[in-house]
Amino acid sequence: MKGLFITIEGPDGSGKSTQIKKLADYLEQAGHAVVLTREPGGTKISEKIREIILDKDNIEMDPVTEALLYAASRAQHVAEVIRPALKEGKTVICDRFVDSSIVYQGIGRELGIETVENINCIAVKNTLPHITFLFQLCPEIGLGRKTQQGEKDRLEQEALDFHQKVFEGYKGLKELYPDRIVVVDASRSIEEVHRDMVMAIEKRIKG
Ligand SMILES: Nc1ncnc2c1ncn2[C@@H]1O[C@H](COP(=O)(O)OP(=O)(O)OP(=O)(O)O)[C@@H](O)[C@H]1O
Ligand SMILES: Cc1cn([C@H]2C[C@H](O)[C@@H](COP(=O)(O)O)O2)c(=O)[nH]c1=O
After folding, report:
1. In angstroms, what CA-CA distances link 1 with 5, 47, 80, 110, 138?
2. Does the pLDDT of residue 173 top 80, yes or no?
3. Atom of ligand 1 nearest to the CA of 96
4. Count of domains in the chain?
5. For binding ATP, which residues are annotated in this chain's numbering (predicted)?
6. pLDDT range class, residue 1, cuts 50, 70, 90
7. Per-residue pLDDT, 93
8. Predicted ipTM?
9. What number does the ligand 1 atom closest to the CA of 149 have?
């Protein structure tokens, strides 16, 4: 794996998509060949799986099915987009990755971290992020930011209690993977958050 693999994680509405675009612009201007992608999604098959998982009609889905669908979408994404781009030395920035499954399915749906890690082991093999920005923002603010964005998807429709578990679950990730996780206070302005991310990336590249 020659390129740099960056992932952005955090609760719904914490500002990930906003920051990813800014980070991609910054890195492109600094001369990186950037691939910007997201999960679930990033390939034709993975986007079709996304439609099933996030269907606004909210058809009941077993948590194991949900975890396997996220992992299936990820397997295709890693094989078709992420791994080839990294091999070519590109910088991949991905909006969510395995950590989302650890937190949403492992903790939110209570499948357990180990079970979700095992499922995803097959999907990603050894393609893991070098640096993960972990956005911290309580669900009341995050979901509040999203209220103007139209109909809620299946996960966003979950009760506040579920989103609270996700928020708490994310807090524990730094302890699990201390080397690659950079915690970001996402309650600040867009520019302040961007500045922090640039500083962390520069440190990582120079280091
Ligand atoms: N730092 C910030 N302060 C205030 N509002 C913000 C900030 N960052 C993003 N927003 C706004 O919050 C909303 C959600 O942001 P964004 O779509 O980037 O979040 P997200 O984490 O990608 O959400 P999701 O995971 O649900 O897709 C948008 O309307 C965006 O303009
Ligand atoms: C990758 C992944 C995502 N999720 C959840 C998190 C969000 O609620 C949605 C994705 O929507 P977004 O607008 O693109 O953030 O799916 C999950 O539960 N498990 C995962 O592995």
Report:
1. 9, 25, 15, 33, 35
2. yes
3. 25
4. 1
5. 10-17
6. low
7. 98
8. 0.98
9. 29
Place of tokens 């390129």: 3
Report whether 146 contacts 156 (CB < 8 A): yes
Angle, in degrees to the nearest 10, between helices 63-77 and 113-124: 30
Give the residue-averaged pLDDT of 122-139. 96
Tell whether the model's pLDDT for residue 96 goes beyond 90. Answer: yes
How far does Cα 54 stand from its chain's mean position?
15
Number of helices followed by number of strands (H, E) in the chain: 9, 5
Task: Give the domain extent around 172.
Answer: 5-206
CATH of the domain at 107: 3.40.50.300
What confidence score (pLDDT) does residue 7 get? Answer: 98
Q: Which residues line ligand 1 (CB under 6 A)?
A: 10, 12-18, 145-146, 189-190, 193
Element (H, E) at 72: helix 63-77
Q: Contact at 8 Å (CB) between 41 and 47?
A: yes
pLDDT reading at 59 higher than 90: no
Looking at residue 206, its pLDDT comes to 80
Pick the ligand that lies closest to the CA of residue 10. 1
pLDDT at 28 over 70: yes
CA distances from 183 to 29, 62, 90, 161 (A): 24, 31, 24, 23
Atom of ligand 2 nearest to the CA of 104: 18
pLDDT at position 107 is: 98
- Closest-CA residue, ligand 1 atom 3, reads 189
